[in-house]
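Honest question from a wet-lab person: if I give you the sequences of every part of a complex, can you actually get the arrangement of the whole thing, not just the pieces? Trying it with mine:
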Amino acid sequence: MEDVYILAVESSCDETAAAVVKNGREVLSNVIYSQIDLHTLYGGVVPEIASRKHIDKINQVVAKAIEDSKTELKDMSAIAVTYGPGLVGPLLVGVSFAKALSFASNLPIIGVHHIEGHICANYIADKELEPPFMCLVVSGGHTHLVKVADYGEYEILGRTEDDAAGEAFDKVARAIGLGYPGGPKIDKVSKTGNPEAIKFPRAKVGGSEYDFSFSGLKSAVLNYLNTASMNNEKIVTEDVAASFQQAVIDVLVGHSMEALDRYGFKKFAIAGGVASNSSLRAAFEKACEDKGVEFFLPPPILCTDNAAMIGSAAYFEYKRGIRHGLDLNAVPNLKLGER
Ligand code: KG4
Ligand code: ZN
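Yes, you can. This is the full assembly:
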């Protein structure tokens, strides 16, 4: 069978990224230009600034991805691009770039769902992983428990009713003075904190039994901080961070394990920026081992936003015959499984 090389572009939020992926699982190059420093000043991603920086960087990032891969544009079978969900301006930069390159090179375009990309990072990390399996996607914008029935076939079993897990990390980090981006900072300071110091709530929600809610937990942390400062009590940042992080992990692990039992999957994967969290990784490793379920997790570089995962997802779409035309548009609230 002929090798399939895909040039992939990702620009849905604050990373300008490009990669070349061979046959869906082999990463020949993976270039990520992170804009984090630019947005730290504002305490979060500023969409307009992100769009402008993507425009600045995308040519260089794609050229470097092709150079690093030791391939040429003529070797590609398709150009892949994230077309949703995400910030509309940043998405449009990637989509417009991919369309222009497709027009100039005559290569087909494959539009990829960002969350599908996160899930497919697992196919790169483990060359043997095949569906069916269950995947927990935890990122800055999403908290989804997904049934991966087959390549490109997804069913959402549970989702957050309010804040995404990463959003909760970022908001709590800001409240305890750690700054942006909050996830990695909470991860770090929690290592010296006591996760049992403060009892924060583990929310049960009214929708599907596998749905999540993190806004109540965030409010509980804010209330705790307000009450402590009004009573002149000492706030131990490490303990607040560790106790909050433990509450998030308990809910994510609890729901995932219940869903594994209910649906009888033998394989479980995690994905998305929050899947880099060291305590979360350890907790899932143990929970899956106790249950006798095989556990898959991408390395942190493939958990954060990157284009290699988009190239992997596009390969499986390519094999299914999916192609998009020059009328492809950015869809900021694209649903998983929609085309
Ligand atoms: O997947 P991602 O890079 O972008 C989105 O698609 O949203 O996820 C970013 C999110 C941010 O909220 C960030 O704080 C969180 O992932 N994050 C972490 C860690 N590293 C990144 N959260 C907890 N622990 C970490 N080590
Ligand atoms: Zn993401």
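Two things worth pointing out. The chain has eleven helices and ten strands. Residues 237-263 form the longest helix (27 residues).
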